[in-house]
Amino acid sequence: PIHKVIEKDFLFYDRLAQRKRIAYNLSSEVEGKEILCDPNYLELIVNNLLSNAFKYTDEGKSITVVLRETGKELLLQVRDTGNGIPIDKQAKIFERFYQADNEHMGSGIGLSLVQRLVDLHHGRIELESREGEGSAFSIYLPTEETAYRPEEIATRTNAIGEQQVYTTNNQDMYIVDTEDEKEVIKEET
Q: Start and end of every Histidine kinase domain (predicted)?
C-alpha cells in the first residue's frame, strides 16, 4: 500500500524534526490503498520534498505530509511553514540545476527529478508558496490503471551493480546514486 511507502520516508525524518523542534505530522486517509506506481520512484519523490522542507523550515515551524484521494487521483502533499519561495523564482523551481538560493547546499536537481518522476506516473505537481509563510508541493497521481497504456506498465526490475533498471514507456530508466544525489538517465531502447 502507498501509505506504507510514505510512512517509511516520513519516519526517516522524525528525529530531525525533534532536533529542529519542528511540528511534524502525517495526515493519511488512504491506508490500504494501492495504486500503480514504482515505490522506489515514490521514495525519491518524497525524500526530495521532505529534504527541501527541512532545509528551508526553521525551528518552531511545521511540516505536514498529507495523503488523500481526490476523485480519480491520489494527493500527496508536503506542506511547510518555512521560508517560502519568492514569486520571481517559482517559475524556474523545477528546472534542472536551478537553485532558488545559494545559501543552502544542493545540486539543483531534486525538484527537476521530482517533476520527471511525477510525469512518468502520468501525474502532476503544483506549487503554492508565499515568501515568509511557507510552501506546499502537491502531487496528484492517478489511482486507476486505465491512466496507463498497457505498454507503459513496468515489466521488469533488475539490479545491475548499484543501478536499478525499470522498463516504462518502452524506455529503460536507470536510477544512479552518486554522492547522495539521485538522477534519472533516460536511454531509448
A: 1-145
What cell numbers appear for 78 in the block? 508536503
pLDDT tens, position by position, 132-181: 999 999 999 998 777 777 766 654 333 333 334 444 444 444 444 444 33
Residue 72: burial class (beta carbons within 10 Å; 0-12, 13-18, 19+): exposed
Three-state secondary structure string covering the chain? CHHHHHHHHHHHCHHHHHHCCCEEEEEECCCCCCCCCCHHHHHHHHHHHHHHHHHCCCCCCEEEEEEEEECCEEEEEEEECCCCCCHHHHCCCCCCCCCCCCCCCCCCCHHHHHHHHHHHCCCEEEEEEECCCEEEEEEEEECCHHHCCHHHCCCCEEEECCEEEEEECCEEEEEEEECCEEEEEEEEC
Listed residue (14, 39, 33) closest to 24, CA to CA = 14
Determine if residue 3 is left, alpha or beta; phi over 0 gives left, psi from -120 to 50 gives alpha, anything else beta: alpha
Beta bridge partners of 124: 140
The structural domains of the chain, ordered by start, are: 2-143 (3.30.565.10)
Kindly state the cell numbers that stand for 92. Answer: 524556474
Alpha carbon distance, N-terminus to C-terminus of the chain: 30
